[in-house]
Amino acid sequence: MTIEGLISNRLRLPSPPAIAVRILEAVQKDDASMAELADIISSDPALAARLLKVANSGMYALRYPVASIDKALTVLGVNVLKNIALSFVISEELRGGDGVDFDIDYFWRRAVTMAVASELTAKIVGQPNDEAFVTGLLADVGILLLQRNDPVLYREILAEHARRNVCVTVVEKERFGFDHAELTATLLERWGLPDTVVAPVRYHHCPQESPQKNREAVEVVHMADQLSAIYHGTDLGRTVERVQGLMTSRFGLSGPAVTMLVDSVAEKAREVFASFDLDPGDMIPYSQMLELANQELAEIHLSSEHLVVELKQARERSDRLAG
């Protein structure tokens, strides 16, 4: 089955939200102005408020808080604001109720973490990219489309993915002939998002297959996916080792720099969750996880020592009574 075949026979791709169309049309004009984009965003007060909250978060580390869309545009630029706005508008369009055995809030927590990780990774490796946040956020929305198209089938795919311990894209390709990343790229392409977003989305699970011109951006999103998996995956130890190895071998970052990045992803993501109406739950930076784990191990060790002492004392009392 091809993506086009699935779309024409069974899957109805959602239409882009009206305000997203207006934003994209405005920035594609030769005479596009900050004022026009500001007017479009400001026409939706809720969108404007959420956008300002993210602009003032630690992710952008502005020297002074911005209190208006006009000021945010001046400080952060048209592309950054455009992509933050699109992130809210498109994610809101694609949010819905939970399916059978499908946690939609978990999906979006992972997506927002990936968006933050993409933004931070691009900066730390010296590849600043205005599209990093929106690319990371939307990279896996094809999962939602497949799940909504056939919840029972996609539940089977997730179960097989867990049972075989392989990437979900492997099972998707076996069942459909394509994976959710390819479907996401098709959707975003149809909606008119640029190739600088579409290509990293299409190849973020297989960066080695990406065209050379997109390779750096693809690798950033691939890394962001791994960073998000640290906080929303099941194999924490191996994922951290993989991230550290990739960041060192590909980008030349040292262990402490990688640890700082991993911690920053959690810290900044927790700030951004509120703007997407998401509960951060018990998500804490990786270094704090290690501290808590070490404390628990120390307590276990102390309690074991205490038990040994008690047993020794009991044995000595028993020996004295026997004597």
Structure description:
It contains 17 helices and no strands. Helix 5 crosses helix 6. The longest helix is centred in the last third of the chain and has 37 residues. The protein is globular and about 95 Å long.
Short descriptors:
323 residues; Hypothetical protein af1432; 17 helices
Please summarize what this structure is.
The chain has helices at 3-9, 18-28, 34-42, 45-55, 69-76, 78-94, 104-124, 132-138, 142-149, 151-164, 168-176, 180-190, 195-203, 215-232, 236-251, 255-273, 286-322. By secondary structure, the chain is mostly helical.
Oligomerization: single chain
Name the CATH architecture of the largest domain. Answer: Orthogonal Bundle
* CATH homologous superfamily descriptor of the largest domain: Hypothetical protein af1432
- Report low-confidence residues grouped into runs of 5 or more: none
- In the CATH hierarchy, the third-tier topology of the largest domain is known as Hypothetical protein af1432
- Overall pLDDT confidence: 87
Beta-strand percentage range: under 5%
Q: What is the number of beta strands? A: 0
What is the rounded Rg? 24 Å
Q: How many separate domains?
A: 2
Q: Quickly count the helices.
A: 17
State the helicity in percent bands: over 70%
Instruction: Tell me the name of the CATH class of the largest domain.
Output: Mainly Alpha
Structural class: mainly alpha
